[in-house]
């Protein structure tokens, strides 16, 4: 790429992100559900379907946790997470991310995927596994056009030893229950128990009125095209190949 082309691309990128920043301010002012750290559990109608069937999802999760140590660390998939975690105590198992479906992972959890088909506006979905004693420092999500949704699947006792603080408000997960919050508020999370805490973690398009709903769709498509997302896709594909090879070796060893 020539220096002129590079400068033009940099200029265009800056203008796009300025437009997205303006859009975020308009979202905060005009969203029909308001602008606050936490939202009611029933903000999304489909949440009741997930809650009613959470044990089915938990069953598929338990099968994956047999291979817990082989699941990818979040920072190994998304380099942006390295400011939050550098150890092996924040594990992930991705189903979808900004228009990318991780088909091999989805095939291992067919009931979970069947239930996720009820979720309108889902941009990201994965199992988020926070290890014993793990604390995520305060941070802020990148974009206000989505809301963060958690379905609590595995919450060790005592339940109040696992928590999250968003915008100065503290909440605790309850197995089988939903939690909805705006991750662009400063937030932190912790697991002060001796077991894993696991939630079904999703980013879901924020309810907006026209024309901001259309502009938000455009912004999400742009974000999905950025090198940050493409790099995460490539890293996850590499992990999937490695994980499948490990599983095949384990299966062959078990038949000898």
Question: Could you characterize the architecture of this molecule?
Answer:
The chain is an alpha+beta fold. The protein has a single domain, classed as Sandwich (Jelly Rolls), CATH 2.60.120.330. The protein has 8 helices and 11 strands. It has helices at 3-30, 47-52, 54-65, 74-77, 103-108, 110-116, 212-224, 227-254; strands spanning 38-39, 90-97, 100-101, 122-130, 135-139, 146-154, 162-166, 169-171, 178-181, 187-191, 197-205. A hairpin with a 2-residue loop joins strand 7 and strand 8 (169-171).
**Total of helices:** 8
Question: How much is the radius of gyration in Å?
Answer: 19 Å
- Low-confidence stretches at least 5 residues in length (pLDDT < 50)? 4-9
Return the average pLDDT rounded to an integer: 88
CATH class, anyone? Mainly Beta
Derived structural class: alpha+beta
The tally of strands reads 11
Instruction: Count up the domains.
Output: 1
CATH topology: Jelly Rolls
Break the fold down into its secondary structure elements and pairings:
Elements: H1 3-30, E1 38-39, H2 47-52, H3 54-65, H4 74-77, E2 90-97, E3 100-101, H5 103-108, H6 110-116, E4 122-130, E5 135-139, E6 146-154, E7 162-166, E8 169-171, E9 178-181, E10 187-191, E11 197-205, H7 212-224, H8 227-254
